[in-house]
Amino acid sequence: MQKISIHISRNLLTMGFIITLVGIIWFFISLPKADKPPPSKISNYIEKIEQFALQIFNQKHKQSNFIEAETYYSFKQAPALLKKPKVTTFDEQGKERHLLVAKRANYFSNGEIKLKGKVNIKAKSGANYQIDTEEISVDTKANSLKSSKKIIYNDGKSKIIAQGMNMDYASNKMNLTGKIKIMQKGGQQILTRDLLVDQQKDNVIYQTPEKVHYQSKAANIHAKGMHYDSKAQKIKLTGGVIGLYE
After folding, report:
1. How far apart are CA 108 and CA 105, in angstroms?
2. What separation in angstroms does the CA of 167 have from each of 107, 146, 170, 228?
3. What is the pTM of this model?
4. What phi, psi does 202 have (nearest 5°)?
5. Which of 66, 68, 89, 164 is 20 to 30 A off residue 217, Cα-Cα?
6. Quick one: which H or E segment has residue 172?
7. pLDDT tens digits, 201-216
8. CB distance 237 to 221 below 8 Å
């Protein structure tokens, strides 16, 4: 009988310990969670301007850029910060060329604007296209756009993915750099490198002297160069063309 009572006592102690442990755990779980601290606010700025706007003129006293932002912050030892910036570029005749929109941007003392976060570029005149990337720099003195991030270019007929780009926005030409993938509406695909995009008034011409791999349902072609007319949907492959057809 004594052994049985000792055994029962041990079981009761064990059960009591488990119940106590569960109670402690439940107590901490049921405690109200502390509110998350509010996101850090920008507080170390020298100047803050709401609905910021800035016109930039070239050496010929013609407007080359127009910069807008929801909020502008300037700092003592850091580039200015623009929240929800819009940058409009102009050609040498003063016509709007591009509208760039992003989540934020840094404005440097040398005139460079670096847009970051879902950057979208839309053509405002000439050929109709748009570009999406995560970061791009606008050199307001050299009138150029440059990015080393992934580029998605779309002209409505073809979609192009590149590893970077640079463009003189006073002209009609753009260089898409690195590995290039062109996807056409008909399902054709072109793989190449370093593509020159000539944006004409109502057409876009794509050219490259690099190796080209053209693929479609009926053909698989390798070449050493390409001239592609987007409007006419015609591709001229050059230099040692080798193809397989079904």
Report:
1. 10
2. 19, 7, 9, 19
3. 0.77
4. -130, 25
5. 164
6. none
7. 778 889 999 999 999 8
8. yes
- Per DSSP, the three-state class of 7 is helix
Please tell me the class of the 40-149 domain.
mainly beta
The correct answer on CATH 3.40.50.1000 for the domain covering 151-246 is no
Tokens encoding 182? 């062109």
**Choice among 14-18, 89-93, 226-230 with the minimum mean pLDDT:** 14-18
The encoded tokens of residue 235 equal 């591709």
Which tokens sit at 12?
A: 């009761």
DSSP string over 176-206:
EEEEEEEEETTS-EEEEEEEEEEE-SS-EEE
Mean pLDDT of 170-194: 90
Show Cβ contacts of residue 60 under 8 Å, excluding neighbours closer than 6 positions: 92
Q: Are 135 and 145 in contact (CB under 8 A)?
A: no
Q: How deeply is 140 buried, as exposed, middle or buried, from its count of CB atoms within 10 A (0-12, 13-18, 19+)?
A: buried
Tracing tokens 């109670």 back to the chain, one arrives at: 23
Question: Cα separation of 85 and 69, whole Å?
Answer: 4
Residue 7: is its pLDDT beyond 50?
no
Q: For the chain, give every domain's residue range.
A: 40-149, 151-246
